[in-house]
Design brief:
This protein is mainly α. It is built from five helices and two strands, in the order ββααααα.
Length: about 190
């Protein structure tokens, strides 16, 4: 099999159910999800395979689910096949957020992204995830989408924030609070 097809040379690409321009809002949405997936893979490379085995397993599952998100976003009409991203996947992200958040100390203020390479890259994942979510919001204004993808990305960015803090905490690196921030977070109950 050849990697190149030459079918995109005129500025269009194939999606599930047809062809669209390469700068179509749909392509921007699933392309940003693909970009996010690459950063997730990079973050995984910076985690400790023994200490962070749980994080690595969860992030690997997220990589598969990001492909599911991209697949759903590339679908022109839902009647072509069932959606892959489900409400249960969003619920599971919330469970993971709670689990990893319980590991970290309380915060009162916004924190600066940084720390070790894993944490820093997970913060990049958070911001790229937010951009992907914005692209999906734009797409949804004009075309039907799987609403669970938007919910999934919204929750996923929260998970990236939490696991970035977890990666630093496990490496004994404290969060650095944004010095000019008011107290914006409530204590964990």
């Amino acid at each position: 099999m050849r990697i190149y097809t030459r079918t995109g040379d005129a500025g269009q690409t194939g999606v599930i159910g047809g062809r669209v321009d390469k700068d179509d809002v749909r392509v921007e949405a699933y392309g940003t999800v693909d970009e996010l997936n690459c950063f997730v893979g990079q973050a995984m490379g910076f985690l400790d395979t023994e200490r962070d085995a749980d994080l690595l397993a969860d992030l690997l599952e997220i990589q598969h689910e990001l492909f599911d998100c991209g697949s759903d976003l590339a679908l022109l009409k839902q009647e072509l096949r069932p959606y892959k991203v489900t409400a249960e996947m969003v619920d599971r992200l919330e469970t993971w957020i709670d689990k990893y958040d319980a590991e970290t100390p309380d915060i009162k203020r916004f924190i600066l992204p940084g720390g070790n390479l894993a944490s820093s890259t997970l913060h990049v994942c958070r911001t790229v995830c937010r951009r992907a979510e914005r692209r999906v919001v734009t797409l949804a204004r004009t075309q039907p989408i799987n609403e669970q993808v938007r919910r999934y990305l919204n929750r996923l960015s929260d998970l990236f924030f939490t696991v970035a803090r977890t990666a630093n905490h496990r490496a004994a690196l404290p969060d650095v609070e944004y010095a000019r921030s008011a107290e914006v977070f409530r204590r964990k109950s």
